[in-house]
Design brief:
Number of strands: 7
Strand content: over 45%
Shape: globular
Number of domains: 1
Helix content: under 10%
Strand order of the largest sheet: 1-7-6-5
Number of helices: 1
Largest sheet: 4 strands, antiparallel
């Protein structure tokens, strides 16, 4: 079910950051991945423990963008 929800998110869409954590676009809960203002990553795999969805994200200067579902 979560995989279908992730397929509707456009590539490059900005993901929300709440209290330094990436917010899951499926269940809107915080993931365990912490993002700092100077964080940079390419194709980082993020897992949501709440809804069990996985996604690849790019992070540049604290901004998180969606790449694809895993």
């Amino acid at each position: 079910m979560a995989m279908n929800d992730l397929k509707t998110i456009a590539k490059g869409a900005k993901l929300s950051i709440k209290d330094g954590h990436i917010v899951c676009p499926v269940c809107r809960m915080k993931t365990r991945q912490i993002i700092r203002p100077e964080t940079e990553a390419k194709n980082l795999q993020v897992f949501c423990a709440q809804c069990k969805s996985q996604m690849l994200v790019n992070i540049k200067t604290g901004q998180c963008s969606f790449v694809s579902p895993c």
